[in-house]
Amino acid sequence: MVTHDSGGPWDQLGTVYESVTPRGYLGWGHSSQLGFSLGLAMGAKLAAPEKLVVNFMGDGSIGMVGMDLETAARAQIPILTIVLNNGVFGNYERYMPIAAEKCDIKKVTGRYADLATSLGVQGERVERPQEIGAALRRAGCTWPRGTTKTPHAGTA
Ligand SMILES: Cc1ncc(C[n+]2csc(CCOP(=O)(O)OP(=O)(O)O)c2C)c(N)n1
Ligand SMILES: [Mg+2]
């Protein structure tokens, strides 16, 4: 079961993700609070423990709720969280031009795989697109060989 967060991940997955099984995609309507997908994924996993539950988040999103990874560890809720770490609040400076110019609010930094490890869950940092497939397999994803599309450069 796949879900995504607000921000860029929503724009990117919501337009291209193709659900191939009934209830394989968990959307959350016209709502946009950053960080929501983490708790949503945990709830989905509790409701459907037999499924692999995956949530895609931006680095801005995990900045909002990342400490809740500790909840997943403590309550033993095994989900797969994928952080699309582009180092920014994507496309957001236009809403706060003065803060962007004076305080550089667009940028976000952090090593979220290390954060995950420190909170008791397994974390892995992927830096090159060609490493994504193997990392997903290590995280428990399976798919028939030859059915994946080439990932775009720029996501990690
Ligand atoms: C709690 C909350 N605060 C602020 C916003 C406004 N907002 C919408 S998208 C966004 C930037 C998202 O950045 P990121 O999660 O890194 O995703 P990206 O667009 O970079 O892929 C912000 C700040 C929001 N939707 N929710
Ligand atoms: Mg970002």
Topology record:
Layout: E1 2-4, H1 8-16, H2 36-47, E2 54-58, H3 59-65, H4 69-74, E3 80-84, H5 97-103, H6 112-118, H7 132-138
The structure holds thiamine diphosphate and magnesium ion.
The site of thiamine diphosphate has 18 residues, from helix 1 and helix 3.
Bound molecules: thiamine diphosphate, magnesium ion
Number of self-contained structural domains:
1
Give the strand content.
5-15%
Written as H for each helix and E for each strand, in order along the chain, the element string is EHHEHHEHHH
> What's the total count of β strands?
3
Can you count the helices?
7
| Uncertain runs | 150-156
The CATH class name reads Alpha Beta
Cα(first) to Cα(last) distance is: 21 Å
Q: Which radius of gyration do the C-alpha atoms yield?
A: 16 Å
Task: Please state the overall shape, judged from the principal axes of the Cα atoms.
Answer: globular
CATH architecture: 3-Layer(aba) Sandwich
Helix proportion: 25-40%
Report the CATH topology name. Answer: Rossmann fold
Q: Tell me the name of the CATH homologous superfamily.
A: Thiamin diphosphate (ThDP)-binding fold, Pyr/PP domains
The largest sheet has its strands arranged as 1-2-3
Q: How confident overall, as mean pLDDT?
A: 90
Biggest sheet architecture: 3 strands, parallel
Q: Helix/strand-derived class?
A: mainly alpha
